[in-house]
Design a protein that fits this description.
The complex is a heterotrimer of chains A (153), B (294) and C (799). With 153 residues, chain A is α+β, with helices and mostly antiparallel strands. Chain A folds into two domains: 2-77, Ubiquitin-like (UB roll) (Roll), CATH 3.10.20.30; 84-152, Orthogonal Bundle (DNA polymerase, domain 1), CATH 1.10.150.120. Chain A is 37% helix and 15% strand. Chain A has helices spanning 22-29, 74-77, 84-91, 101-114, 120-127, 138-152; strands spanning 2-7, 10-15, 48-51, 54-57, 70-72. Classes of the chains: A alpha+beta (153), B alpha+beta (294), C alpha+beta (799). The interface between A and C is large, with 52 and 57 residues.
Chain lengths: 153, 294, 799
């Protein structure tokens, strides 16, 4: 089936099967590797992408569903240098192995777009679907809170 | 796991075409809305449809609308939509409170309220709340439209009153003045399925609806508990009497998520604390929506 | 005591420029921009083949037949492998495992056959067409029944297995290794004690849950070189085991190359060799084609190493003044179907099962028991987390029984430098007392706190921890270092960046010696053809061991730099020093020669000729004071551990008495890092490790049904913490009592931060509710139902 969609501003015309999952198609045919394969059932959040402005689990989306839609991944946030949020992740040591980091950056980016000055609870809520086994979350929460507070200035 | 079998996919742009597509593959077509259950089941080989009918291009199914006292929620309305809707916040705040306990943001951005009651797992969060709201489920099929009372919707474990050739278009609820609460027992504060759940709606005349989730094969309401509460002011003795009915009313199982004993004991605790909170909310006192009693 | 260390690293004095500072991670920008490459992110082009594995649905069975006929005809199938293709044993410490099952399967999930196909989907489909007939046997799922008289033998040929010399298998039993410690006279000490407390503690199995699943791509090129890209903590160990296991096919070490890019979390689960050998072996059947094998999350749970379960029978004798006089600790480990790695967990725990206390009379028995559950193996903490649960619970109970404050009791017995260890060697310098004091202060120990909420109560707990790296006595590290034209530096090592910040710390150590800033040093992830040897990135040893190797390489480079300067300018080496990327001279303050001017091209002399040339250096470290030769009957005589890292953990928690829900309001953890080369990274280990440890006691639990099948191999039902499930406040405390032989005094901290998490919760729950729970996990359900049982029985007594 035809799949025409936009990934980080670049349009793609691909041929996919109905059973192909968006996560696999992005990684194998659309030149982005930051969405990761972690659990393939929507539990871990490492496959998070932004589709039409909202984070979704690309492991639970059929590729054909993305036809006509616009997708952003961390590669798309990083073309012109790091975002302010990414910079805060760096200075706060908000990641260790880095495997969950792309998904977490996107989840936090979505939150900050909707709630520029989130509470600790808001941050926890926004990130609760993105599992990180390394950091214990605290440095991530601190970075997102710092990004939010800065957004107010 | 990769989806290992093949199927056809269609994305019809009208309700008629969607119904027509279902009719072409009797019993082997699945409707796709948010896909958070269906795609997981496809990966697990739990379902093997010949056709997947994606209804996201069907017009009119994504609306939340208020008509007099009837609130209508289309079958493409996601849990995030419920959380962000002013209409929901003003008229059916229990739906938003429930929605906040479902999955995580990335799931709620796709998963739909209607999909949740169509999957109809015992722990579905929407079930007890829609039961407490006396919701109606609207379907369209080859024979036209029909409405099913939510009390008749859950007919068995993962089974609903929907026929294979029907599409749920929306659910409606009566939004008369009320207080209420959705109490969900989870293994931890993060994303989890309900180990047990209680939904309560109380009207100004102290007409109660009390529904339970994850403590029986389907979500259900307890007429005995509602009868015992009807029209009465809440006091410790009354609450004690209805809490004492819980063990007889529910039929929980022991599984890896919780023991039957714990589910029973916690359902009692949740009903106790939930009743006080629901009545408090009716009078505008006590906990705000979203604040939890367990 | 420092004199007891035959080896002493150079210990630079004076102010440090880089060491001790929170340098920004050298892998940071890559990881936060999506650029960091993990194995699954590498493209292999259209020739890539995919593998799928057929697994045993039975915990114990004899394989009657394997019918692959239908699968061979399936679309896209290139090759099918079974045990017949690879009748070879392998194993890290004990060779008890086959690549594919031979005649028997011994756990649910054991690999029986593999399909290689042109697409992942076709591989999975074909795997479903392979028919295996089994003759079922009764599985042994509990270690105590597996050691009972007359139990079936899971490995009847145990006595013939090859193993390291410090293992002691018991022939004709299911005991693969029995570590015994006998010190003093335990029986007499118990008889003389004022109080003896005895109880049994149970700890289930746990899963590592790195978010990146195991994945490997293997290719045998037409020239006979086998390259394996793998998500591994152990590239050189993998190369060694692949070369050993596949030696019958003609491979030698030089033919095998392991490449390990970034790893998405390890925690011990990616140490040694597990599924990777399947990919490596299968690739030999399809010469020239890369073969990818990636575990599903379910396989990640049931078919990689698991943290072993343990039943711990503990008996402690104490005098009324609080002096511990004897410890008897009997640990029955549920080691699973194959113990090639897990047996060393058992060994490590047996050596140290007294905890960080001075104990004159010791009887430790640590039994590695075969069961028909998945293979046990290394997991952050390596046996110590498991036995600390009972031990540190027990310490609180003894303190209460003799009417002593638990903190005072611990301080009275806490081990100090020079105390004799269970096996006769002596304790290294440590800041244990400081850690206890700071932890107790951080949680307001001794200050009663009451909840305003009538449904909840508040409790506090404290627990100590210690751990030594568990490794072969000669486990070693090496490093290569080279300068570039601009004075920047490349370092090649083979430790793994697992997230802990290893690459950054290696850069900091080299930076300190060479005065080159961290952001001008690139430390590369391993390729076994190019990077020098490292044993493994486990045991919290790489900061120490690989750090020493890097320090030595940097010192060698510095000495070569000084030699060039000496040759050209005549300054004596000992008058030279490095500062701000330049050579300076103590005797001639005007002298300054920037490194970038000569570290490649050398220095031109007055006659127009050149001196020097590219500065390259290497370093290696092997502990030369350890040995594993001890008396099997007593454990005395060896020096198996290099040193211990110690610390303390404390929590304040609030519990809903009705639901059992626990909120950790505050958690403090003090660890003696010797020297924190990067304090931010140490704090990262404290926060992350503590949360991981708390999860093992509060939520996580591997559940198996009566047939030995794991019931919850998903994150839906094996609950690891989310951003909501962390303490409200975490207080990291770094203690620094230098390790004399460590790089700048450093010792490892990676595993230690999760070790005391379980008992500290048990102790705080007891403090809050008066309920002592002796089995892990301590879930809200268990707390609620235990408390309910207590209140009901109290109610009955009142009637």
């Amino acid at each position: 089936m035809d799949l025409n969609f936009t990934v980080n501003g670049e349009t793609w015309a691909l041929d996919v099967a109905p059973a192909d999952v968006l996560l696999d198609v992005l990684r194998e045919k659309a030149a982005v590797k930051s969405p990761k394969i972690g659990c393939e059932r929507g539990d871990c959040g490492s496959c998070t992408i932004i589709m039409d402005g909202r984070t979704v689990r690309s492991c639970l989306v059929l590729a054909v569903e993305a036809d006509g839609h616009e997708i952003t991944t961390v590669e798309g946030l990083s073309f012109d240098g790091l975002s302010r949020l990414q910079g805060l992740f760096l200075s706060n040591n908000s990641f260790q192995c880095g495997f969950c980091a792309p998904g977490i950056v996107l989840a936090a980016t979505e939150l900050l777009e909707r709630k520029p000055n989130p509470s600790r609870h808001d941050v926890q809520e926004a990130l609760a679907g993105n599992l990180c086994r390394c950091t214990g979350y605290e440095p991530i929460i601190e970075a997102v809170l710092a990004a939010g507070a800065g957004g107010d200035q | 796991m990769v989806i290992s079998h093949e199927f056809d996919y269609r994305r019809p742009s009208s309700l008629e075409d969607a119904i027509g597509a279902l009719a072409e593959f009797p019993g082997s077509a699945w409707i796709l809305a948010g896909g958070t259950d269906l795609v997981a089941w496809l990966r697990d080989d739990a379902v093997a449809p010949d056709l997947v009918v994606d209804i996201k291009d069907v017009p009119g199914l994504a609306d939340i609308a208020l008509d007099d006292r009837t609130l209508s929620i289309g079958s493409l309305v996601t849990f995030t939509d419920l959380i962000e809707s002013d209409l929901i916040a003003d008229h059916a705040p229990l739906l938003a409170e429930m929605a906040e306990t479902v999955g995580s943001t990335g799931i709620r951005n796709r998963a739909t309220l209607v999909g949740n009651i169509c999957s109809a797992v015992p722990s579905c969060d929407a079930g007890p709340v829609l039961l407490a709201y006396d919701a109606a489920v609207h379907l369209a099929g080859p024979a036209g439209e029909r409405t099913v009372d939510i009390n008749d919707w859950f007919v068995g474990l993962r089974q609903t009153a929907r026929s294979d050739d029907e599409v749920v278009t929306r659910v409606t609820i009566d939004v008369r003045s009320h207080g209420g609460i959705y109490v969900k027992l989870m293994r931890y504060a993060g994303e989890d399925l309900a180990q047990a759940a209680v939904a309560i709606v109380v009207r100004p005349d102290h007409d109660f609806r009390v529904a339970f989730g994850a403590v029986a094969p389907t979500p259900f309401r307890s007429a005995r508990i509602e009868d015992a509460l009807r029209g009465k002011a809440l006091d410790a003795a009354l609450v004690g009497r209805v809490v004492a009915l819980v063990a007889d009313e529910i039929s929980p199982i022991t599984d890896m998520r919780a023991s039957a004993e714990y589910r029973t004991r916690m359902t009692e605790v949740m009903l106790d604390r939930g009743l006080w909170a629901a009545v408090g909310r009716l009078s505008g006192e006590g906990l705000r929506y979203g604040e939890r009693v367990i | 005591m420092t004199a007891t260390y035959p080896f002493e690293a150079e210990s630079p004095t004076g102010d440090l420029a880089t060491v001790g500072t929170p340098a920004v991670r050298v892998d940071g920008v890559e990881k936060i921009s999506g650029a960091a490459q993990f194995v699954d992110d590498i493209d292999f082009g259209p020739g890539l083949l995919y593998a799928a594995i057929v697994e045993s649905p039975h915990a114990y069975a004899r394989i009657v037949s394997i019918d692959t006929a239908e699968a061979e005809q399936a679309s896209g199938v290139v090759r099918i492998a079974t045990g017949k293709d690879f009748p070879y044993k392998f194993g890290m410490y004990m060779e008890d495992r086959y690549i594919f099952a031979q005649d028997y399967v011994r756990f649910v999930g054991e690999q029986v056959a593999g399909v290689i196909a042109r697409s992942h989907r076709e591989a999975v489909r074909a795997a479903k067409l392979i028919k295996v007939e089994y003759d079922l046997l009764t599985p042994l799922l509990d270690p105590r029944s597996a050691v009972a008289e007359g139990a079936d033998l899971i490995h009847p040929d145990l006595a013939a297995y090859t193993h390291v010399p410090w293992f002691f298998p018991e022939a004709d039993t299911n005991i693969a290794h029995w570590r015994r410690i006998r010190k003093g006279d335990t029986e007499q000490a118990f008889a003389d004690a004022d109080l003896v407390l005895e109880d049994t503690y149970e700890v289930p199995r746990y899963a590592h849950c790195a978010i990146e699943p195991h994945v490997t791509v293997s290719r045998l090129d037409p020239a006979g070189r086998l390259t394996v890209w793998t998500a591994s903590q152990s590239p050189h160990t993998q190369r060694h085991l692949f070369a050993q296991a596949l030696a019958p096919l003609g491979f030698t070490h030089k033919d095998v190359r392991v490449i390990t890019p970034y790893v998405g979390g390890g925690f011990g689960g990616k140490a040694g060799v597990s599924m990777e050998i399947l990919g490596a072996a299968m690739a030999t059947l399809v010469k020239g084609r890369p073969v990818k094998l990636r575990w599903t999350r379910e396989q990640e749970f049931y078919n990689t190493y698991q943290r072993q379960g343990v039943v711990a029978e503990l008996k402690v004798g104490v005098m009324n003044d609080g002096t511990i006089t004897a410890v008897e600790h009997k640990l029955y480990w549920d080691a699973g179907a194959y113990v090639e790695y897990g047996a060393n967990v058992v060994n490590a725990a047996g050596l140290s099962a007294t905890g960080p206390y001075r104990v004159p009379n010791i009887t430790n028995d640590s039994l590695c028991v075969y069961t028909n559950l998945p293979p046990g193996g290394p997991y952050r903490g390596f046996g110590y987390s498991e036995f600390h649960f009972g031990l540190e619970s027990h310490m609180d109970r003894i303190a209460e029984a003799i009417g002593m404050d638990p903190v005072k009791f611990r301080k009275k017995n806490a081990i100090v430098e020079g105390d004799e260890l269970a096996y006769g060697a002596h304790m290294n310098p440590s800041g244990l007392h400081e850690a206890i004091d700071k932890t107790a202060a951080a949680i307001g120990w001794g200050i009663e706190e009451r909840s305003d909420n009538p449904n909840t109560v508040i409790g506090k707990g404290i627990a100590l921890f210690w751990k030594a790296p568990a490794m072969p006595p000669n486990a070693s590290s090496a490093s290569f270092l080279k300068f570039n034209e601009d004075g920047s530096v490349n370092i090649a090592v083979s430790g793994m960046e697992l997230g802990q910040g290893y690459l950054t710390v290696m850069a900091q150590i080299a930076s300190e010696v060479l005065s080159v800033p961290v952001d001008k040093i690139r430390v590369e992830t391993p390729d076994t053809d190019r990077n020098p040897y490292e044993w493994q990135t486990v045991a919290s040893h790489v900061t120490w061991s690989s750090g020493l190797a890097v320090e030595k390489a940097a010192l060698e480079a510095r000495s070569k730099i000084f030699d060039v300067i000496h040759q050209v300018y005549g300054f004596e080496d000992d008058s030279l020093y490095l500062e701000d990327e330049a050579v300076r001279c103590k005797t001639d303050p005007s002298f300054s020669k920037p490194l970038r001017d000569f570290v490649i091209d050398g220095i031109q002399t007055d006659d127009g000729t050149w001196r020097g040339g590219p500065i390259v250096a290497s370093g290696k470290f092997m502990p030369e004071f350890t040995n594993a030769n001890s008396d099997p009957a007593t454990g005395q005589g060896g020096h198996p551990n290099v040193h211990y890292t110690v610390g303390a953990t404390g929590v304040v928690l609030e519990i809903d008495k009705a639901t059992g829900r626990i909120w950790v309001r505050k958690a403090a953890l003090a660890v003696d890092a010797g020297r924190a080369i990067n304090p931010d990274l140490v704090k990262g280990q404290i926060t992350g490790g503590l949360v991981q440890g708390l999860a093992t006691v509060l939520f996580e639990d591997m559940r198996f049904d009566e047939g030995g099948r794991m019931m919850n191999p998903t994150f839906t039902d094996y609950k690891i913490p989310t951003a909501f499930d962390i303490p409200d406040e975490i207080i990291p405390i770094i203690v620094e009592v230098p390790q004399p032989d460590g790089p700048f005094g450093a010792r490892g901290v990676g595993e230690h931060t999760m070790i005391a998490a379980a008992p500290v919760i048990a102790n705080a729950v007891y403090h809050a509710l008066g309920v002592r729970i002796t089995s892990m996990p301590i879930t809200q359900e268990k707390v609620a139902m235990s408390y309910l049982a207590t209140t009901m029985s109290e109610g009955n007594q009142e009637e």
